[in-house]
Write a structure and sequence with these properties.
mainly beta; globular
């Protein structure tokens, strides 16, 4: 089933999809037609228009894209791969700048979008001493794209969240799942969190000084790390459920915990369950739509063809599938601040 305007072509627009207030004339109805711009990374980048229900363009890079990041205004996009980090224009779909040419481990943006952090695999050290680092962190000023500096990081770091300021903590994730914190990038004073192993990616809230992860344990609890203090706590677990991944809304007010057979959406800051989802999301990378009313998630079909599934949260209705055209999707990201409604005159 293809997706056209996020609804089946045989369906009429449901009554509840028209939002109208008492003060609004009939000529200013807002139809529930999301216009999210969904970027899919594989061997290149492809842009999916959710309202049109199809791929509308892309960048044909001959390398596997492993990371996609956007500035909060959605005007700048960054892709990481085995060949380095590139900036591209998410509207014109044109290459803008090449930042690095080494294999990327992780990329992050500063909370105010003024810096780009690139964690990359370093060349082999001449000596095999344990003090030598196998990864390095490059920091770029995004005002002029110049390199500000390079930090040597502990061995086997696979992800990190940079400190918001020199008084905050950076969070580091190692390949065995262990987590360490250090003030700014003072890795010589790295402190490991006791008996904590992560099973998920690190997620940083844009609205609070919080970093989230899922614990690699029987209950796979949700862990909250305060990057102002470096302290952590378990804030949620569900008896009989094991979670494999998580996702956040842009406003930080909802968290999706992906389970094997069922998934949960939590409210922040109470961490109460607001929705129980029975749709199978396991082994899929899931993102919220801009209006937080839908989930988009990748699925591999026959012959390595990939699809973006669209799940309307109200009623947990699967609205359709959008196929990628030229690439097999591996990662998915939403361009921030995309418009998700259109005005229509009856």
């Amino acid at each position: 089933m293809s997706l056209l305007g996020c609804r089946d072509t045989s369906d009429s627009v449901p009554t509840e999809s028209v939002v109208q207030t008492k003060s609004e004339p009939l000529s200013h109805r807002v139809l529930d037609v999301p216009q999210d711009r969904i970027f899919v990374g594989g061997r290149g980048v492809e842009l999916i228009d959710a309202a049109a229900g199809q791929a509308v363009g892309g960048l044909d890079w001959k390398t596997e894209i492993s990371h996609l990041r956007f500035t909060q205004n959605g005007l700048r996009a960054f892709a990481g791969s085995s060949l380095g980090v590139f900036e591209f224009d998410p509207h014109k779909l044109e290459l803008r700048h090449v930042f690095t040419t080494a294999k990327v481990v992780s990329i992050r943006l500063a909370t105010d979008d003024d810096k780009l952090f690139v964690l990359e695999a370093a060349s082999e050290a001449v000596e095999t001493s344990r003090t030598n680092s196998s990864v390095r962190l490059k920091v770029f000023d995004l005002a002029n794209n110049v390199l500000l500096g390079t930090h040597q990081l502990p061995k086997n770091v696979v992800d990190f969240v940079p400190a918001r300021s020199s008084t905050h903590f950076s969070i580091f994730q190692f390949d065995d799942g262990s987590i360490g914190v250090a003030k700014d990038f003072a890795v010589s004073k790295l402190r490991m969190l006791p008996k904590i192993k992560s099973r998920s990616r690190l997620f940083s809230s844009t609205t609070a000084s919080i970093v989230y992860l899922l614990e690699r344990a029987k209950k796979s609890a949700l862990i909250e790390i305060d990057d102002k203090t470096g302290k952590w706590k378990r804030v949620f677990s569900q008896e009989g459920m094991k979670f494999s991944d998580l996702s956040l809304t842009a406003d930080g007010e909802q968290l999706l915990l992906v389970g094997k057979t069922q998934s949960l959406i939590l409210k922040y800051p109470s961490y109460e369950v607001s929705r129980l989802l029975k749709t199978r999301l396991n082994h899929s990378q899931v993102v919220f739509s801009i209006d937080n009313r839908r989930l988009y998630y990748l699925e591999l079909g026959e012959e390595q063809k990939s699809y973006i599934n669209v799940l309307l949260l109200d009623g947990e209705k699967r609205q359709g599938q959008i196929p990628t055209e030229k690439i097999t999707g591996r990662i998915i990201a939403i361009q921030p601040r995309s418009e998700y409604a259109v005005m229509q005159t009856p």
